[in-house]
Structures are given as C-alpha cells and as structure tokens.
Amino acid sequence: MKAKETAIVFIEFQNDFCKEGGALYEGVKEQIKAQNTIANAADCLRKARGRCLTLLVPIVFEPEYCDMGCEGVLGPIHQNVVKTRAFRKGTWGAEIIDELKPTDQDIVIEGKRTLDAFHSSNLDFILRVYGIKNVAFCGFLTNVCVEGTARSAYDKGYRVFLLKDCCAALSAEEQKYVEEKFFPYIGEVLTHDEFLARLED
After folding, report:
1. Are strands 159-168 and 53-57 parallel, antiparallel or unpaired?
2. What span, in angstroms and rounded, lies between the C-alpha atoms of 42 and 166?
3. Beta-carbon count within 10 A of 200 CB
4. 113-129 pLDDT, tens per residue?
5. Selecting from 3.40.50.300, 3.40.1390.30, 3.40.50.850, 3.90.1010.10, what CATH number does the domain 3-170+185-197 have?
6. Cα–chain-centroid distance for residue 159?
7. In the chain, what are the helix, strand and coil shares in percent, each to the nearest 5?
8. Is pTM, for the whole model, over 0.70?
C-alpha cells in the first residue's frame, strides 16, 4: 500500500470526549482506558506524519447551536450534544486534545456537523486533491461517527480500514460489534502498528 496514496482520519479527538471535565467524557472514559485510545492515537499520528496524509476532524457547533437547525427535528444524539453543551465553538471542550495537537504536517477538516464527516465538510475534496485511495479511520464513537464516515468512504470508492486500538465506543459490546460484525463487510480491522507496517514509502 503506497503511503502517498494513503490517509488517516482522526475523528473528534476533542476535550469534551477525551478529558476529565469534558461534557461527554464520563460516558466513554472506561473504554478510552480499556482501549488505551489516546496514547495509541497519539503514537499513530506521530509515526504517520510525513509518511501519509494525516487529517483531524473535530465536530464544532455555534455557541447556541443555531447551525443545528430546528431542534424539533434533531435525533437523540444531537439532542444530547445540546443538552450537555458539548462541542461549542470557542470553548475548551471543542478544542483538539494536546496529545494530537495539529502541526503544519496535518490538515484540520472543518465543518463537521453530522455523523458522517464527509456530509458537511470538504473531506472528500481534500482526499481527492491528494490522490488518496486508502483511508484509515479512528476516533469517537466507533459505532457512530467512525462507522458512519467509513461507510460513506466505502460508498465513494475508497479502500477503508479501522484502526481498532485508536477508537472508543460507549461499551465493549459496541466496539466489538463494529470490529467483528460490521466493518469486515467494507474493509479491514487492524491495530495502528499493523496498518503503518503496510505502508510503502
């Protein structure tokens, strides 16, 4: 697999998910610890920089969620974001965590508002500009935004991978379902080191 044709997409590594005091941290903290998600993702990003395309995709809303549309049509997951006051522009919670702080070797994709990171951003445009064919995904939540974005990438013609040790869901059962039941239909499930070992410079 050619490194220059490969990208890794890091989804929602933000304080509201990843850090004590974050709006959604309590729900996912046990799986972050069990998976060693943060340390693994940071190691992956460090090793991948300069070899393949590295993209960080936060989800950020206006402070009062006016960009979310009519509250009456929001699904439960977006309703919970509003209820917990998560991912508000200009707040500590919306910032990318220090462990994955972007450098000039990374691209930060802005505009994510939905579960599928392609839907409201320029992610597909950036991948095609760089001639990317292979895309690995990691982040939060494994069975929601990571799965949704990977599914969309598959439908767009990309070869897709799940970096299982760089993800977290709300439970081990949900994580296992994606790894063993869903993702094998569309791509491969690997650790970040297994994936990086396949790259040919």
Report:
1. unpaired
2. 9
3. 10
4. 999 999 999 999 999 99
5. 3.40.50.850
6. 16
7. 45, 20, 30
8. yes
